[in-house]
Amino acid sequence: MSSEGEDRRPAAPASRPWSLVALRYVLPSLVTLAGLVIMAMGSETDLEGGAAIVSAGLAIFFLNWLFRAGVAGDRDREAEDAAREYFDRHGHWPD
Questions:
Q1: Which of 38, 44, 83, 90 has its CA 20 to 30 A from that of 29?
Q2: All residues at 6 or more sequence positions from 36 whose CB lies less than 8 Å from its CB, including other chains
Q3: Which domain holds residue 32?
Q4: Is the pTM of this model over 0.70?
């Protein structure tokens, strides 16, 4: 029904693999939780060490988020390129 290049939107993603969910959400959560537990232990050294571990957990989460944001930008760029090619061939912007 559609000609080549008209609709290049990616299909809806299937369920995410468990390893991806573990890397994106479980690992940073566990590291952050471990830091909070260490901070609750009491001494000043535990407080500083726990804060460093909490920071590491948050860094893991935000690095995963930045990677996903970069990949989404690549998809948007590819969709824009496809729309421009469609415009060049057909003379109007695709719907």
A1: 44
A2: 50, 54
A3: 19-90
A4: no
